[in-house]
Each structure stands twice: as structure tokens, then as C-alpha cells.
Design goal:
The complex is a heterodimer. By secondary structure, chain A is α+β, with helices and mostly antiparallel strands. Chain A contains seven helices and 15 strands. Chain B has two domains: 173 residues, NAD(P)-binding Rossmann-like Domain (Rossmann fold); 185 residues, Orthogonal Bundle (N-(1-d-carboxylethyl)-l-norvaline Dehydrogenase, domain 2), CATH 1.10.1040. The chains are: A alpha+beta, B alpha/beta.
């Protein structure tokens, strides 16, 4: 199987597991903050995804949300978030996904995002294109004022001083677009940009596993994408992705974001 | 002083298989002037350079030749559709929406040879015009020709001797067309959709699986012929019940179709027919949709499922739907049917395909050997 095929298989298998446990979370623990939590199902889902990848690519390097790096980073690695949107999931709000990407030289070259609740499988390969299920995606040039947008915030514990600034940006975007959402899943935000439901998706100090796959999917669908790893040890990334018109407008109004 | 014949001016959108190969036979040059609109730059420039092309019609086991001289070949947007007495489109169902602006300018009959009966009513709404009619070119037209013909004229094309059925509202166009009532259109469309389209693409997917280039080559293989014939029988039983067609008509139509799929003069490329498998696997379309119809009449779609499975296995890297291979490799049957095809797990067809999945792969593997 190719890497893309393995990533799809792993994402869908983990997604099936999430769906089977939906509404039946037994254990929830806080990580960095009240809103940064991990459930027993996150761990099961991660084990599932990792086992499929390791079975097909023995000895590969994997960076996962719950376990970190399984081996020294050699420049090529799998990056897994086996449940992006855990808070949504534990509250039975069906907006969550599995996100798996493959990185070469600090850039994602394969990305898969699967929301088992909506049967939406997003996938992309660098230079090949992005797809939702069987359909190839192509971003239209929606203007900011005509589109819905989404922003993902840094963790509460990351930098409390930054949060006021983030809320300011959120409010401004909310006022100059048809609305800015905080959905709880950064991966899904980027996929919704890729298929035209959003015109802009951006985030501050998000974890790389949250957005690796989504960034590539949005870019391959034709969105303008920029990201910046701001803390390599903590895997934190600032990013902005949007239609050409939306990204240009936001940068003209608010300055450089990343 | 002799009377000068005023020829009708026909604008044809699409100079592909139907537009170039078949339409010139139904609008003879003594009464009609043809003009093309073609968005494919290479084809358009070749047509502009040559000012004519050759279309061959197979009849009674032989070719008839027609050298078609046309007025002009425009790029989309260069044409003035309001200058014509009639418009024919053969651009493909996905592309026809790009013609909405052109349609909204004209009052002459517009006939859509687009293999989708839903398009004319939809376009009537979108354009606000009621002069848009459905047409069924009951014909197979290749988009190429044998090498010896292409050496003489690289734009050569081969078509069958078919019949066109068009809604009678467009009858002012004339030509070699059967203008028929809505009920007759419905009957012809049911036959075309399920006794022609469904087995036709199954023949193509089976042929592609075995590595053949032309449809008749695959049909020459008994195992392929038997599956195509079986699928046609299953659909025949279903349409008799669903559309109140008489068995005699269905039997005649089926025999005609098997003969045309096997026509060794036609050189119908498998890639032309098999392309874009996801569209054919749509819930309402010629494979999944047809099988659902068969099931709804109590017909078990055994051979149709083999056809569906062959479409799932379609492996053509240059196809727009090349990703079907990625998805079939990575997803288990249940997830492929649920996520990609959109079948629900409680549906009979879903259950049947899952049940027959492994056995179908074995059967198809044996045919491929």
C-alpha cells in the first residue's frame, strides 16, 4: 500500500472506533487546561492508527498527540491526531475527526482527515490534489465579506497575555465576514475551507498534529496557505489559510498573522 | 431562374464523437449548414485548418463515407448563437452548464444529446427558456477510427447507423430525426438508459480489466459477452415491469445492443466509455441506480454486481477519477460502499455487494487470466 492508502486506512479504522464509542466515554483527564483533555477513546484510537501505520511501514517515525515521538525525528515522519475535537466528542457534539499526515523536511506531503459522523473523508497528496470522498476539491475565490470563517485558539496555558490579542482578532474577523466560528476542530476548519464551506481558517499556537493534514488538504484544493512553526519543542504552529481574496483582505486589515 | 435552396443553419456544441461523427449524418449538406463550437484547442485548430473531416458510417457490415465541410469552428464564447436555426449539444452532462448564457439568447430549438434526461427541464428553469429539448441519439459513435482511415484524414471518426429520437416540440429542425411524443421518449429513454447504457459501460469495464483497447475486442471473449448479456437480461426484466415495455421490444432492443457492442467495424475505445467511473456509480446512475431498480422489481442483480465490481477495480491513472484505485486499495468493502458510494448499510444492494465481494473478485480474477 502507498503512504496515502495507509493513511486513509488508518484514519478510517480509527474513525470507526470513535463512532463505536460515541456517547460512551468512560474516562476524561485534563492535560494542559480545562479544555485540553484526553479521553480513554483518544488513546484507543491512537493505538489503532499507529498499529496500522507500523504494520505497513515498520520502524517508521511517528509523532502522535498522546505519545509524542516514538523515535528520533529523522526528517520524515507520520503525525497523528487520532481524535481532533475531543471536547466536542465527549459532549456528543458530532464535529470531530481523525487527522493523519506524513511530513518530509518539515512540510506535509500527505494528509487525511476523516469525520466518521458525516462520512466525510478528506485526503490530499502533494502535487496530486485534494479530495472529499470521490470528488476533487477546488477552492473558489470567495471574498471575506461573503464567507464564513473559523479560528482556532492557542491552549489556555500557553501564553495568557496572547489570548486577549487572539480574542481581538477573532472579534474583528467576526465583524468583517459573515461570522467567525470557533468549532473545536482545527483540522475540520481547514477541510471546510478546502471544500468551500469556509473562506478562511486560521490559528495561533495550534499543535502540529491538529493541522498538518488540513494544511495540505487546503493547499492542494487551491487555498493560499502559510504556516510557521513557532515552538519546535512543543510542536506549536501559527497558520493562516484562505481563498486568495479572503487572505489578502485579512492581511490588509489586520497585518501579517503568522 | 432556378430557386435557390435556403439551407438551415445548425450550431453544434462539441465536435467529439456524437457532434462530429453522428450529427452530420442527420443533417445532410444539401439542406443544412453546420458550424461547430469546440473548447478543446487542439481539436478546434485541427478542424479550422482542415475545414472538413471524414465520418464513416457502418451499415450492413460495410463503411459509408461522408466528407463533412462545415462553416466554421469557434472557441466557446466566439459564436453568435442567435444567428442559427437550431442548436445541438454533445458536450457531456458536466459541461453543458457552461452553455446557459448562450442558450438564454436564442429562441430556436435547442436539442441536448447529453445522455441525461434531467438536463432539459433543469436548463429550462435555469435559462427561463422553453425551447430546450431532450434528444436520444440511439447510436454508438467512436471518437476515433482505424489507422488506415486516420492516415487519410487524422480527424476521421466512425459511427453506427443509428436513430435519433427527439421531443416533438423541436420538429421545425427537420433532418433525419424521429420526433416523438413524451410517452415514446420515455420508452426509448428507459431502453437506452438500462438496456444500452448499463451493459455498455459494464462491457467497457470488463474490457479494460482484461487490457483490451476497443469494445468489440472484449466482447469477443465469451466470459465477458456472457456477463454483459446477463446484465442486459436482468435490466430487461426490470424495465418490462417498471416502464410497461413489451417483452418483444426489449428482446429486439437487447439483441440490437449486443450486436452493436460487438461491431468489429466501430473501433469504440474502451477508455471513452469507461471514463469517470464515479459518475456511473452514482446512486441514481447506470450501475448502482440500475441495480437498485432491478432489486425494486424483484430481480437479483447477479451480473450487474459483477459489472459494479469491475468498475470499482478500474485502474486508469490518466482518468479524472483515478482516485478510485486509491480508495478501493485502502478501504474495506463496507466502508467503500458507505463512505464513497453512499449506500446505507441496511440497503439490500449494500448487503448483496458485501456478500458477493470476495466471490466476485475471484470470478473477475479468472476472467482476467
Amino acid at each position: 500500500m502507498t503512504k496515502l492508502e495507509v493513511a486513509i486506512k488508518a484514519a478510517v479504522s480509527s474513525g470507526d472506533l470513535l463512532l463505536n464509542h460515541y456517547g460512551a466515554v468512560k474516562e476524561v483527564n485534563d492535560k494542559e487546561s480545562l479544555r485540553d483533555v484526553v479521553s480513554d477513546v483518544d488513546k484507543l484510537s491512537e493505538i489503532k492508527a499507529m498499529s496500522i501505520i507500523e504494520e505497513n511501514y515498520p520502524g517508521c517515525v511517528i509523532l502522535s498527540e498522546e505519545n509524542g515521538l516514538n523515535a528520533p525525528d529523522s526528517g520524515e515522519k507520520w503525525v497523528i491526531d487520532a481524535l481532533d475535537g475531543t471536547v466536542n466528542y465527549i459532549h456528543n457534539f458530532p464535529f470531530y475527526c481523525v487527522s493523519i499526515s506524513y511530513w518530509v523536511d518539515d512540510k506535509p506531503v500527505i494528509g487525511v482527515v476523516y469525520n466518521p459522523h458525516s462520512n466525510e473523508l478528506f485526503y490530499a497528496e502533494k502535487g496530486v490534489g485534494a479530495f472529499l470522498n470521490q470528488v476533487k476539491l477546488s477552492v473558489q475565490n470567495c471574498k471575506l465579506e461573503n464567507g464564513l470563517t473559523a479560528m482556532a485558539f492557542s491552549g489556555k496555558a500557553y501564553n495568557p497575555n496572547m489570548r486577549t490579542k487572539e480574542f481581538e482578532i477573532f472579534g474583528k474577523i467576526n465583524d468583517i465576514s459573515q461570522g467567525c466560528l470557533r468549532t473545536g476542530s482545527a483540522a475540520m476548519n481547514l477541510c471546510y475551507l478546502a471544500d468551500g464551506r469556509f473562506s478562511l481558517a486560521l490559528g495561533k499556537a495550534n499543535k502540529v498534529w491538529d493541522i498538518g493534514a488540513g494544511l495540505l488538504i487546503a493547499e492542494e484544493a487551491g487555498a493560499m496557505v502559510e504556516f510557521n512553526v513557532i515552538d519546535k519543542d512543543k510542536y506549536l504552529v501559527n497558520y493562516i489559510a484562505g481563498t486568495k481574496a479572503s487572505k489578502e483582505t485579512i492581511e490588509a486589515r489586520l497585518g501579517a498573522f503568522i | 431562374m432556378g430557386n435557390k435552396i435556403v439551407k438551415k443553419k445548425i450550431l453544434i456544441y462539441g465536435a467529439g464523437a456524437i457532434g462530429r461523427g453522428y450529427v452530420p449524418w442527420i443533417f445532410p449538406s444539401d439542406s443544412y449548414e453546420l458550424t461547430f463550437v469546440e473548447s478543446n484547442k487542439r481539436l478546434r485548430e485541427a478542424l479550422k485548418r482542415q475545414k472538413k473531416f471524414t465520418t464513416y458510417r457502418t451499415r450492413n457490415g460495410k463503411y459509408e463515407k461522408l466528407v463533412c465541410s462545415f462553416q466554421e469552428c469557434f472557441d466557446l464564447g466566439e459564436e453568435s448563437p442567435e444567428l442559427y436555426d437550431g442548436i445541438i449539444t454533445a458536450v457531456g452532462p458536466r459541461q453543458v452548464y457552461s452553455l446557459i448564457e448562450a442558450f438564454s439568447k436564442v429562441d430556436c430549438p435547442i436539442v441536448l444529446f447529453e445522455n441525461d434526461s434531467r438536463l432539459p427541464p433543469e436548463l429550462r428553469v435555469l435559462t427561463g427558456k422553453d425551447n430546450i429539448y431532450f434528444g436520444i441519439p440511439d447510436v454508438i459513435t467512436s471518437n476515433t477510427a482505424p489507422v488506415n482511415m486516420l492516415e487519410i484524414d487524422p480527424l476521421s471518426i466512425v459511427t453506427e447507423d443509428g436513430i435519433s429520437f427527439v421531443e416533438d416540440g423541436a420538429s421545425s429542425l427537420g433532418g433525419n430525426i424521429s420526433y416523438v411524443s413524451k410517452s415514446e421518449m420515455k420508452k426509448q429513454w428507459a431502453a437506452k438508459l438500462y438496456i444500452h447504457n448499463t451493459p455498455h459501460c459494464i462491457a467497457a469495464y470488463l474490457g479494460a480489466m482484461c487490457g483490451y483497447k476497443y469494445l468489440h475486442e472484449g466482447m469477443n471473449k465469451k466470459a465477458i459477452y456472457d456477463i454483459v448479456e446477463g446484465a442486459m437480461e436482468e435490466m430487461g426484466q426490470a424495465v418490462v415491469k417498471l416502464f410497461d415495455l413489451d417483452q418483444e421490444f426489449v428482446d429486439w432492443y437487447s439483441a440490437k445492443e449486443l450486436a452493436r457492442f460487438s461491431n468489429i467495424l466501430l473501433y469504440d475505445p474502451i477508455l471513452r466509455v469507461a471514463r469517470e467511473p464515479f459518475r456511473k456509480l452514482g446512486l441514481q446512475d447506470r450501475l448502482i441506480g440500475a441495480s437498485q431498480l432491478a432489486l425494486s422489481t424483484g430481480v437479483i442483480p447477479e451480473k450487474l454486481i459483477l459489472g459494479i465490481m469491475t468498475a470499482f477495480m478500474y485502474d486508469e491513472s490518466s482518468d479524472e477519477d483515478f482516485n478510485i484505485r486509491i480508495l478501493i486499495n485502502s478501504l474495506d468493502p463496507k466502508n467503500f460502499l458507505k463512505i464513497i458510494i453512499g449506500l446505507k448499510s441496511h440497503e439490500a444492494l449494500y448487503k448483496l455487494i458485501v456478500k458477493k465481494w470476495n466471490n466476485s473478485i475471484e470470478i473477475l480474477g479468472d476472467i482476467k487470466k
